[in-house]
Amino acid sequence: MKELLFPPGATSHDWVLDALLAAGMAALTVPPYAMSGPGSGGDTAQFVAALLMVLPLVLRRHSPLLMLLGVTVAGLVQLVVSDTPMASLAAIPVVAYSVARWIPGRESRLVLVIGAISAVLGPLRWVVDDPAHVSVRDMLLIGLAWFVCLGLVITPYAIGRRARESTEFDLDRLAAAEDSYQRLLAEREQQNRLAESRARSQIARELHDIVAHSLSVMIVQAEGARAVVARKPEVAAEALSTIAETGREALSEMRRIVGVLRDPAPASEGQVDFAPAPTLEDIPELVARTSDRARLEVRGQPPRASAALALTAYRVVQEALTNFLKHAGPDAIARVTVTYGKDDIVIDVLDNGVGASGEAPAAAGHGLRGMNERVSSMGGRLLTRSRPSGGFQVTAVLPNGN
Predict the structure, then answer these.
(1) Do 159 and 20 belong together in one domain?
(2) Is the pLDDT reported for residue 356 higher than 70?
């Protein structure tokens, strides 16, 4: 109820404008009644009635309903003190517009009801001198006056409602735009979180592949060196060289991956040279370095492949050999077959180790899951299973769009 009587939004600037409007209306309509005679009682009453009609305009935006009440009371006073239309009635269209513009819903129609009643009472008071003798001419004049008076209420009322609806439409449009903008920000934030999550997963896969494979190779080589150090020192020395080379390569790859997480160093500090990502041509060296129990067979020539596809193929071989070293057993042999076809690259890694009967289920952790994610991201297929004849099988089919 308080918001209905005192709608929010009227500022001090609005108060000043409405006060100037009321003062201007009073200057135009009230002086004739102050100067019309030597100060008779009737003239004084009309002067007061005229002031009562225009002064409520000060409340035009602060409280339209109180303004309507004040103008209604002033209209009733004018019916009593004047038998002719007064100039201050010019405030009525302003009242009708203001109520329609600032009062919401059905409450604004109150001005139409009061205007319709006043449009009847006013002409009756102005036209009919003797209520017992009303002529046809009087009826015609009353009808015409009623039409004009009602028009002075309905027309500004319609304009005020149209202005209010236009403002509400603009506010709704701004609210919709703001809501759309907030949804866009939320979507972008979600996309950023997803991108960060994908980046973390990719880095985790890279680090897992590098660390797991390199440590497995180093452990196997170290165990072999320990076994032959007394009988064949030259073989042990070769194994130690392989361990050192594997460690340096692992460190180089880890520096390459970690480097993308850091801000570029200033030119004055120099730049760190990172090794390029592995390619298809690096697979033979990978197999040879991993273990002397791994055999490689290459069918066809390495095609032109994207860096992402080449890295995926390299990591599949690397992870499969890592699992072989960790789970197949010390006497197992792995056979790696890489087939370069016209439209795809097929990688088969077969071993004759313990397979699922031993520790192979442990391989179904982050390694195989990361391998499957890599292959799926390239639109390929991955098969990992224990072989019926013993051992484990990893087969990846990678489509080559190039």
Answers:
(1) yes
(2) no
What CATH number does residue 381 fall under? 3.30.565.10
Tokens describing residue 91: 């405030």
pTM > 0.70: no
Residues 6+ away with beta carbon under 8 Å from 163: 101
Contact assessment for residue 121 and residue 110, using Cβ atoms and an 8 Å cutoff? no
In-domain check, residue 215: no
Tokens of 122: 């006013």
Q: In angstroms, what is the C-alpha Rg of the chain? A: 47
pLDDT at 364 over 60: no
Is residue 212 within 8 A of residue 319, CB to CB? The reply is: yes
Amino acid code (one letter) for 165:
E
Q: Which residues of 284-315 are buried (b: 16+ CB within 10 A; e: fewer)?
A: eebbebbbebbebeeeeeebebeeebbbbbbb
Q: Tell me if 317 sits within 8 A of 349, measured CB to CB.
A: yes
Per-residue pLDDT band for 345 (boundaries 50, 70, 90) equals: very high
Work out how many domains the chain is built from and give that number. 2
| Residues 215 and 230: beta-carbon distance below 8 Å | no
Strand partners, 388: none
CA distance 61 to 352: 91
Domain end (from 179, 212, 237): 179
Token couple for 181? 């903008």
Range among 131-140, 239-248, 324-333 rated most confident: 324-333
Q: How far apart are CA 230 and CA 357, in angstroms?
A: 34
Within-domain flag for 211 = no
pLDDT in the model for residue 131: 67
Secondary structure class of 59 (helix, strand, coil): helix
- In a domain, residue 118? The reply is yes
- Of 156, 179, 202, which residue is a domain's last? 179
Domain assignment of residue 163, given as a range: 2-179
* pLDDT for residue 52 is more than 70: yes
